[in-house]
Amino acid sequence: MLEFSHDPILAVMACAMAIVAGFTGLSLTRNMAAKTTSQRKIAISLASVALGGGIWSMHFVAMLGLQMPIPYYYDAAITLASALIAILIVGCALILLHFTERSTPMILVAGAVVGLGVLVMHYVGMAGLQLCRAVYTVQGVALSSAVAIALCMLAVWVAYQRRTNLHIFLATLCFGLAVSSVHFLAMAGTNFVAVPQPGDFGPAMSNETLAIGVILSGFVIFGAFLWVGTTYLEGPGAETTPQDPLDVQPVPVDSTLQIPCEREGAKVYVSPREVAFVRADGHYTQVYTYSDRLFCAWPITEAGKRLLPAGFVQTHRSYLVNPDKVARFERTKDKGRCTFTDTDLPPVPVSRSKLKDIEAILSGQIGATGAA
C-alpha cells in the first residue's frame, strides 16, 4: 500500500470550486417560470455544465494535490468521460425539476440523481489513474454514497422548496459540502497500490496537462459565477420578474406600460389594465380585452418579458393572463382553465406543469373549483 497525503491549499481551492459551481448552476435556473421552453432548455444546459463541470473540477483540483511516493498520470479518455457523465446525470436531474410536476418526492428524486452523479464521476475519475490503482473499502464506499445522496437531496430540496435568494445561498453551501465531503470521505476509505504497466484504454495525460484542463474549466465556471453574481448585486429592484410563481403574489398591473397593437391597420396603444390575456399567434400575439381582439407584433417571449414583471402570470407557454380579470380558476385532475368576468371571452388553458402555481397565485383573490 502506498502512503499518500493532500496539499492543504489545493484541498481548500477544490472546496471553493464546488461552492462556486453550485452557486452558478443554481442561479442559472432562476426565473424559469417566465421563460419559454427553448429558453428553459438553454438554461438547463448551461446549469448542467456549471454543476457537472464543477463536480469534475473539484475532484481533479483535489487530485492535483494528491501526493504519493511514485509518479502517476491519467487516462485522458476516462478523465473526459468522467466529466461528461457528471454533466449528463446532473442534466437529467434538472430536467426532472423543470419539465415535470415539481412535487416534494420529485425534488428528492432529483437530489438523489445529483448525488449519484457525484458518486459516478468520482469513481470513474479514479479509474483513470495510471501506474497506481485505487483499492476501496466497503465502509468507505458505503459512507461516501450515503453522504452524497443525502446531502445532494438536502441541497436540491432547499433550493427548490422556495426559489428565493436565501434558499439558493443555503443550497449552494449544501451542494459544496456534498461534493467536497464525498471526495474526501471516499479518499479516506481508499488505498493505493503501484501498478507496473499502464492501461491502454486511451492516451496518457500528465498532471501538468490535467492542470491546464482544470484551469480552463475553472476559468469558465468562475466567469459564469461573476456573470450570474451581477444579478444579485443589482439589488432587489433590478430583477422584477418573479423567481417562481409560488415565491411572490402578482403585483398590481403597471399602468405606465403600453402595448403596441393594430386595429384596422392603425396603430393603437393598449394599457395592460385593459387586457384580459395575451395569446401566442405564430411569431406574433393576439391581445384580448373585453371589447377587442387586437394584433400585436410582440412574440410571446417579448410579451412575457414586458408583462410578467407588470403583474401578468403565464398559465401556458402560449398564454399570459391578467390575474385582475380572472373570475374563476377551474381545475379537473391534470387540466385547468381560467375564466373571465366577461363571459364572451374564451377560457384560457392552464398547463399541467403550472396548475399548482397558478392555483396558489389566484386562490387568494378569486374562486377556485374542481378536484385536484
Biggest sheet details = 7 strands, antiparallel
- Give the amount of beta strand, in percent: 15-25%
Adjacency order of strands in the biggest sheet: 9-8-12-11-10-14-13
**What structural class should be given to the helix and strand makeup?**
alpha+beta
What percentage of residues falls in helices of 4 or more residues? 40-55%
Low-confidence segments, given as residue ranges, are 235-251
> In one word, what is the shape?
elongated
Average pLDDT score = 83
How many independent structural domains? 2
Order of helices and strands: EHHEEHHEEHHEEHEEEEEHEEEEEHE
User: First CA to last CA: what distance?
Assistant: 60 Å
DSSP helical segment count: 9
- Estimated radius of gyration: 25 Å
Number of strands: 18
